[in-house]
Amino acid sequence: MKKAQLLSEIVGDVFLPVLGYLFWGWNLYFILLFILIDFSVRLLFAIWRPATRSIQLLLRPILFYLSFLILSHFYMVLTEPTWRFATAFSAFFWYEDLFIPQGLILLPLLIYTERSRERMELMLNGSYNASQQLKKLGNRLLGGTLIFMLMSLCLVVFNWTETVEIIFFLSAWLFLVIYEHKAVFLKR
Questions:
Q1: What is the pTM of this model?
Q2: Coil, strand or helix: which one is 61?
């Protein structure tokens, strides 16, 4: 994997949620919804590709996606017992910035990003290895699930604020992305 690919992953997966937190007032759930929509788009592309329609290839990412979804929502209920999915999702999707709902911008952006990821892989490596991308997606979802398990334990032990919670999550997410691409740093 090239450094350009690592940089694009960091920008798309970490920097955009940081911008959302700093400039658009995203809370942890808005960041989580962005990540979930991103993973949903990636999984739908994987299901759509003929090369990855095998249940053996899709089983692991789908199970990890469901575990990430359930555990992250469990965490949100722990932090705010009055929280409701439908109202929170609606608030995220229809949140307006410059009079345009962000969901109408983010969804096409994430679809475009997935297509660009495919083209970049094809351009750099000469072929697109869909099963390798599914394995990478499954690993990222497993890492995200472990992050929320750790955050749930920390919530019980510590009484942290929303800011500390978001900084912890984004730092752990950045570490996860960098760890996935450790080969870039080990190559000379």
A1: 0.80
A2: helix
